[in-house]
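Quick start: read one record
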Amino acid sequence: MLTTESRFQDFPALQGMTYLNTAAESIPPQCVGEAIQQYWRDKQLGMKGRDPHFAQVEACREVSARLIGLQPSEVAFCSCSSEAFNLLSTALDLRPLDEVVVTDIDFPAGTTPWMTAIRPPTVRLWKTENGQLHLPQLVPLLNEHTRLVQVSLVSFYNGFRIDWAPLRETIRRHAPHAVISVDVTQALGRVALDCSDTDIVISSTHKWTLGIHGGCIIGIPHHQASRLTTHAGGWFHLTNAFEPDRFDRAITKVGAASFSVGMPNFVSLYALNASLRYLESIGIEAISAHADPLVAQAHRGLSELGILALAPHQPSLPTGILAFRHHNSAAINAALEREQIHVMHHAGRIRIALHGYNTSNDVERLLAALQKLV
């Protein structure tokens, strides 16, 4: 996908190291740094800088909408996925008799707002078997009281990817009143999304999208806008924030726009606009075509070393993540770090993430090092 020359031109930080940790933090391309510098120059204009600031927000909204399959008017931004899920909680205003379904391989941001609510709903846990989520285990958790089903398209924990269409159809059939919320943080920018007809899409911006911290994409189709409007204070999401009636009532914009409660984090959106357009110029399909075989190569190599991945390889549902457990994981991680091979290590689990800027040589270096260590 990238030549050796263009790879190091766009990602000079990759010289001298094997970076396999994009699922935690990406290495942004040079154009992102240039966008941040442009923000700085625009910021020096003072109040006049807001014109280019808001132009960048709208440009970022346009490209974000294209990549998640929505219209620009259905997309907005907040500061992080945790904020987005907490704002979603205010929109749903769940009660103790309401039920929420979450999975045991979802990120805490998507699972904890329902547990910490003042009037917490009943939370039902969809558990994995052998690293996979199976629909027959979901069906008994769904009923007429189910108000929300929260899933990640790709799990941060082990890289398992949900087969979207059967999941959506199962939820619509057995829990017709439920909102379907999908976190695409570990998919957007790495694989072509297949989460059509969802009710709300949420994604952080500092992982596979190659952006920086401080941003989050929220997508809500127009037909769900009134249902998914937040009940939060602020000003940017209000239509009458500075009108004469502002102390009598607060009129909230509907849908995705209601999630942008305060001043946009302009610098993160400058960065995201640049990173998404960079990814789009290459093509998500091209990225997947390049990086999916690397994931398969890593799966085969781990298997040959007697290492069992925490989720099975799914060629028809590609992801960028694979993970495994090892009793000596801390020592393995330390040894990899000494060889400038960067993975994620946490609580006995090692996670490997392969993006478009990775190469077959990166996988070979990892496997060769593991062969000596395990």
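The chain has two domains: 4-20+283-373, 33-280.
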